From TrEMBL:
SUPFAM superfamilies: ALDH-like (SSF53720). One of its GO terms (molecular function) is succinate-semialdehyde dehydrogenase (NAD+) activity. The lineage of its organism: Bacteria, Pseudomonadati, Pseudomonadota, Alphaproteobacteria, Rhodospirillales. This is Aspartate-semialdehyde dehydrogenase. Belongs to the aldehyde dehydrogenase family. The keyword Oxidoreductase applies. InterPro entries: Ald_DH/histidinol_DH, Ald_DH_C, Ald_DH_CS_CYS, Ald_DH_N, Aldehyde_DH_dom, Aldehyde_DH_Superfamily. One of its GO terms (biological process) is gamma-aminobutyric acid catabolic process. Keywords: Oxidoreductase. It comes from Caenispirillum bisanense. GO terms for cellular component: cytosol. Residues 33-492 form the Aldehyde dehydrogenase domain.
Amino acid sequence: MLAVSTTPRTEDVAARLRDPALFREQAYDCGAWRSAEDGDVRLVTNPSTGMALGTVPALGAAETRATVAAAHAAFAAWRRTLPQERGRILRRWHDLMQQHAEDLAVLMVLEQGKPLAEARGEIQYAAGFIDFYAAEAARVNVEGVTPHLPDCTMTVRREPVGVVACVTPWNFPSAMITRKAAAALAAGCPVVVRPATETPYSALALAELADRAGFPAGTFSVLTGDPEGIVGELCANPLVRALSFTGSTEVGRKLLAQGAATVKKMSMELGGHAPFILYDDVPLDEAVTGAMAAKFATSGQDCLAANRIYVHRRVYDAFVAAFARATEALVVGDGFEPGAEIGPLMHERAVAKCHAHVDDALAKGARLVAGGHAHPYGGLFVAPTVLADVTPAMAIYREETFGPVAAIIPFDDGDDVLAMANDSEYGLVAYVYTRDHGRVQRLVEGLEYGMVAVNRVKITGAPVPFGGVKQSGLGREGSRLGLEEFTELKYVCATV
Ligand code: NAD
């Protein structure tokens, strides 16, 4: 059994790494490692054990202003650096990530808590964006125009937007940074990252590797500390020309309002509340495997998590029973425990939200078919839980639980499951399981979601556009489109 300590002792993080220099307790500011002006620090803890991992500088608005000014100064040379050379530096960064993949995964387990296998997967996913944009750097093309006016030439140039701010969440501490930063750097923009308060060490290890890869000073910085001070400055500063945020819809709305004063480009990857629609023509095993992966990846702390599992009445009872059995069999534990599938949640408030959603659903008539009790590990561990007969009156039907609690809803032939799936302010991803082509076509056309997965769960990767509609966000990451978020068009009409 895990021991969850109440008074944090310090874990020796460096001793767990093959390259201890990847554990950095300072911020990376325009090519130099630094502390806060006033020496203030924030404690970082391991969510599995409650033990302290170390500290990071608590930087604020004034330090951020200076970093942005230095990044802006570096912009002139970085935008003129040949795209092929930017690509070469990105490639070295990617190769260093691969060389140090195991250390990066270990750091992630220590500060985020996810199982080691998931952390290894995230490092590969994260490195994939750098690999992709290293090649894409040289393909930021000028578009041709056929003139509609006499005696002139017309061109449209695609130019880097300027300093880009990246604000990222704790559930994917590496991939949410590389998905943004690799695209912006490839486009010729300097980048200032503000990683999540809870998971700075993955970001600082990426900074150490970026330093070794040879990015010029000022083109890449990672500032740790006060979210309101740092992010407030990034939003207000006119030299920041684009801000790319991944996190909750609630904070995204605030940042959109704060960024409005300086009319910058804002990309938003926000919350999700994915429907998973299962018809009765799919083998039960395949349906359960798919739904388990879609619900419980990242311990349910995933914007792509299948939060509303709609199951056709003809297979409902069989599915509920099999899904409950599979859920009870999930291995909960510290991310380093062999075979661990579900780690701890990130905060007390996340644990409280899971329990509140379960209590509310049970009070309104849901049926508890797995879990539901406090997990014996205590601390931030929650027992994987399944609720059947969930209805729209329950909080879990409307809100992201962001934890290992599954909600199953039956539907009948006469029900409009498409309308049920679209009945949400979110629109990130939807899952459809059926072999009927007509149904697939109708659902794919009708689903108000940025991404649709049909008879499969894993669909993301660097070459494809990731993003949502409605209140799940604005813009796309990954693919060529992700690069375009960090460029502006300049139309030139010349008579010479
Ligand atoms: P969050 O919105 O609380 O925090 C995101 C980032 O913003 C963190 O760096 C945080 O420190 C910072 N922040 C928080 N409050 C702030 C404030 N008032 N001003 C400025 N910055 C502030 O989100 P989270 O809890 O870290 O992550 C979970 C959320 O992220 C979920 O809603 C999830 O769906 C979403 N998410 C979306 C995607 C996607 O690609 N669409 C991916 C991962 C997570």
